[in-house]
Amino acid sequence: MSGVATSIKTLRHELEKQGHQVYIFTTTDPHIEKDVYERNIFRFPSVPFVSFTDRRVAFRGLFHAYQLAKELNLDVVHTQTEFSMGMIGKFVARTLKIPCLHTYHTMYEDYLHYVANGKLLKPVHVKQMTLAFCTHLDGVVAPSERVLDTLTSYGVKAPIRIIPTGIDLEQYEPDENELDVREKYQIPDDAPMILSLSRLAYEKNIKEVIDGFPKILAALPDARLMIVGDGPARETLEAQVTTLGLDDHVVFTGEINNNEVSAFYHATDLFVSASDSESQGLTYIEALAADTKIVVKSGPYTDDLLTNPALGTTFKTYDEMVEDVIYYLKHSQITDTAALDETLKQVSSETFGHRIVDFYQDAQFNYEESRQDSADVSN
């Protein structure tokens, strides 16, 4: 479901394509039957994590993880969370004397309101936690410039490299056998349709898109807004739609199967997001890969992604959003295929995999050099 899980799945696939052996150490999952075989996946006992009940934290397994890792003869540990499994990963790497790299996926300052309504944890606590975790790392992957700037401002000293998570471009090519989304949700073929696809969380700011929809309908009376996903903000958003009298024009699909995501992009004319909490925004790239233009909130990552207006644009204000959505709904076809191909080449899963391996190799070289220097000094 999450962008982090998608990133890990993509990385594993690309590393294995290159001939590398990949093992995933993660938490138990109540949605996975205990007896189901999962290739090269090791699960550790866990409990739901504080206010994020769909996220889990391992409560034991430190030495078991070390024993497994030693038997597997690992070369590199790549952690993907700053919490329990991340700390276990750091311990394993340090004990086995191998490099440990980390991907900083989540901009935690955007999520502090989930814990005691923002009264318990402050931005300074995020800084302290991040600095503590990033100490003694051999490399940090920043999915975007925004993440790099944040980590630098915190004072992280480990080598940081911007490597956006790539996507499998083939997965978003049209398929004649894919789900007919418009037919399923009874939406006319000629109705201009906007897609919002994400976890329905307050920081995704879907409220702003709904707020602007009456003005969009004034210009395009047949328009539809499809909101795909589920999450804590769903009831609030549904109530907002009803209050604004938009029930006939807004569709909530709930959670969908990941294999059907491409069909939703293909069925719509424009992808829209008012979120400013994305460290990267995989859905933006997925939309472009599905040949769908995007209108998204301005930020360092999105402004860099959308340098060509032929693919979409970014907005800063509510009025800009409404104006841009109306324009791009009227001009929804991507005609500059060269610009699209160049953009997608930079964010392909293949490019992602090769850049990560390059980082691993550099980290290994620097780690061995550092160990040799330490040995020379002690002698």
Which keywords apply here?
14 helices; Glyco_trans_1; Rossmann fold; hexosyltransferase activity; four-stranded parallel sheet; elongated; alpha/beta; 16% strand; Glyco_trans_4-like_N; 379 residues; six-stranded parallel sheet; Glycosyltransferase; 43% helix
In the sheet with the most strands, the strands line up as 11-10-9-12-13-14
Percent of residues in β-strands: 15-25%
SS-based structural class?
A: alpha/beta
User: What is the share of helical residues?
Assistant: 40-55%
Report the strand count.
14
Radius of gyration: 22 Å
Number of domain units: 2
CATH class of the largest domain: Alpha Beta
Per the CATH scheme, the topology name of the largest domain is Rossmann fold
Count of helix runs? 14
Shape-level CATH architecture of the largest domain: 3-Layer(aba) Sandwich
Largest sheet properties:
6 strands, parallel
C-alpha termini separation: 52 Å
- N-to-C order of helices and strands: HEEEEHEHEHEHEHEHEHEHEHEHEHHH
* Unreliably modeled segments: none
pLDDT averaged residue by residue:
90
Shape: elongated
Structural description of this entry:
- The protein is of the alpha/beta class.
- It has two domains: 3-166 and 349-378, Glycogen Phosphorylase B (Rossmann fold), CATH 3.40.50; 169-345, Rossmann fold (3-Layer(aba) Sandwich).
- 43% of the residues lie in helices and 16% in strands.
- It is built from 14 helices and 14 strands.
- It has helices at 3-17, 62-72, 84-96, 123-134, 145-154, 181-184, 206-219, 234-243, 261-267, 282-289, 300-305, 318-330, 337-346, 349-378, and strands spanning 24-27, 41-44, 46-49, 52-58, 77-79, 100-103, 139-142, 160-162, 193-197, 224-228, 250-254, 270-273, 293-297, 312-315.
- The strands form four sheets. It has a six-stranded parallel β-sheet with strand order 11-10-9-12-13-14, sandwiched between helices. Strands 5-6-7-8 form a four-stranded parallel β-sheet, sandwiched between helices.
- Helix 2 (62-72) crosses helix 3 and helix 7 packs across helix 12 (318-330).
- The longest helix has 30 residues, at 349-378.
- The protein is elongated, with a radius of gyration of 22 Å.
- The model has no long low-confidence stretch (mean pLDDT 90).
